[in-house]
Specification:
Blueprint lengths: L2 E5 L3 H13 L4 E5 L12 H5 L13 H6 L2 E4 L4 E5 L4 E4 L4 E3 L2 E4 L3 E3 L12 E2 L4 H11 L4 E5 L3 H12 L3 E5 L12 H13 L2 E4 L6 E4 L5 E5 L5 E3 L2 E4 L3 E3 L15 E2 L11 E3 L4 E5 L4 E3 L4 H16 L12 E4 L6 E5 L6 E8 L2 E8 L2 E8 L5 H10 L7 H5 L16
Parallel strand pairs: 1-2, 1-7, 2-3, 7-19, 9-16, 10-11, 10-16, 11-12, 18-20
Antiparallel strand pairs: 4-5, 5-6, 8-17, 13-14, 14-15, 20-21, 22-23, 23-26, 24-25, 25-26
Helix pairs in contact: 1-7
The structure holds flavin-adenine dinucleotide.
């Protein structure tokens, strides 16, 4: 009987466990997580922190879910090492668990700012349900906030401050929010959204140090220009550090994440990886890529499991991801790899509508839609078909996109 061991019970690990049970009904399956609760919806914890959603609907699996499927679940168990020669996983409790096939689905941990008092009381990072509980509890009694990290998680902190009535300054390094994917035009819509909820974007700023009161609680952030922002709450979201320390010495190829092929296989026999932690071969993009989103992590877990259970590689990962933000009066969606590509086209339609498409070798590789998400399925279709369309960007930027207006693709390589 094959023993599959999965490290991590986030969406990628959990979806792998579910698929493995379907693919290999007799196998032994073990899921190990250092969190104290089984899978929950990480996307929804921000709604909890905002004070808008109770705990119950956020949970996805009860412990019975694993029992019903004869999957062994080890909560509160931190994996400290992997020995690929002996095929053993070591845990913090000194246990050695033998595996036949191993899936690493350990995601990342929010990176701390390398500045004074970055771990002071009142400075929050956002990844787990426990983090969300702490943020909610503190946000309900905080008055003045500072947010650092002009990306997708930083804006969740802005929304928490807005919903909890915290007046906040959003300290950004450049001249706009998510400058790698948005032009000044698109970002301005997001800045207006922030201002509407009481969050003030501050540009060419950042944090040089946090200051604390005598009890060690944060009371200010000082930016590199020497400006002092008083606050009793801070949210830091400057990126993820991938959870790979326990793989030291195991021989897995890493490149800011674990390198896997399109089958989610690492370079070490019988070890696979899935979810945020991977740098995977993206068959649509034609190069290695990374993706931090729920749908992509879920699909990677499923594909990894299919290949783990098969005698040979069976299914490749092929996915167009999307990530939406629903905090403001207008919707926002990024899809694919909006920060990559060698060319882009964009247009603003109104005070709350904007669109940007990124192309590589003439094919769409990603984009951002603000205000009107209706073209998303058409753009994703063109991505899957890998059609060369950058020379017809005017058709794609029409308010109503009609793919029939595109010239036929005969002769395309
Ligand atoms: C606040 C927030 C909002 C988000 N909003 C969106 C959104 O709107 N849309 C979207 O698509 N995505 C969103 N995401 C991102 C999305 O949640 C992630 O991409 C996805 O959850 C990644 O899943 P994963 O299984 O790869 O990793 P994770 O969910 O990080 O799971 C990894 C698990 O492994 C455990 N682990 C790590 N190391 C060890 C170890 N050594 N031993 C044992 N266990 C270990 C971790 O504790 C964790 O439970 C959001 C994330 C956050 C935090």
């Amino acid at each position: 009987m094959t023993h599959y061991v999965i490290i991590g019970d986030g969406i990628s690990g959990s979806s792998a466990a579910e698929t493995l049970r379907e693919e290999d009904p007799d196998a032994k399956i073990t899921v190990i997580t250092d969190e104290g609760e089984p899978l929950y919806n990480r996307i929804l914890i921000k709604e909890h922190a905002k004070g808008k959603l109770p705990e119950a609907p956020i949970s996805i699996h009860e412990e019975e879910w694993y029992e019903d499927r004869d999957i062994e679940l080890s909560l509160n168990t931190h994996v400290t090492g992997v020995d690929p020669d002996a095929k053993l996983v070591h845990t913090h409790e000194g246990a050695d668990i033998e595996y036949d096939k191993l899936l690493v689905a350990t995601g990342g941990t929010p990176t701390q700012l390398p500045v004074d008092n970055s771990d002071a009381d009142g400075v929050h990072h956002f990844w787990t349900f426990e983090d969300a509980r702490g943020i909610r509890e503190h946000a309900e009694r905080a008055d003045k906030g500072v947010i650092v990290g002009a990306g997708l998680l930083g804006i969740d902190f802005a929304a928490v401050c807005g919903a909890q009535g915290i007046e906040a300054d959003f300290l950004m390094r450049g001249d706009r929010w998510w400058r790698y994917a948005l032009s000044a035009d698109g970002a301005e819509i997001m800045h207006d959204g922030m201002r509407e909820v009481g969050v003030d974007p501050v540009f060419d700023s950042g944090v040089d140090r946090f200051e604390t009161d005598d009890d060690g609680h944060i009371n200010a952030a000082v930016d590199p220009n020497g400006e002092r922002y008083e606050c009793d709450f801070a949210g830091v979201a400057i990126g993820l550090t991938f959870n790979t320390e326990f793989l030291r010495g195991a021989g897995l190829e890493e490149n800011n994440g674990i390198v896997v092929d399109e089958y989610m296989q690492t370079n070490v026999d019988d070890i696979y990886a899935a979810g945020d932690i991977t740098r995977f071969y993206d068959v649509l993009l034609g190069e290695q890529a990374q993706n931090g989103s729920w749908g992509s992590a879920k699909e990677q877990g499923r594909v990894a499991a299919v290949n783990m259970a098969a005698d040979d590689t069976e299914e490749e990962f092929q996915w167009v991801s999307s990530y939406s933000i629903t905090h403001f009066d207008f919707p926002f969606l990024s899809f694919g790899h909006p920060t990559l590509g060698d060319e882009h086209a964009e247009r603003r339609y109104s005070d709350t509508e904007w669109r940007r498409i990124a192309f590589k070798d003439g094919k769409i590789v990603g984009g951002v839609l603000i205000g009107d998400l209706s073209p998303q399925s058409k753009f994703k279709q063109l991505m899957r078909e890998q059609r060369v369309v950058s020379d017809q960007a005017d058709v794609l930027l029409e308010q109503q996109v009609d793919l029939d207006e595109l010239a036929p693709t005969q002769g395309q390589e």
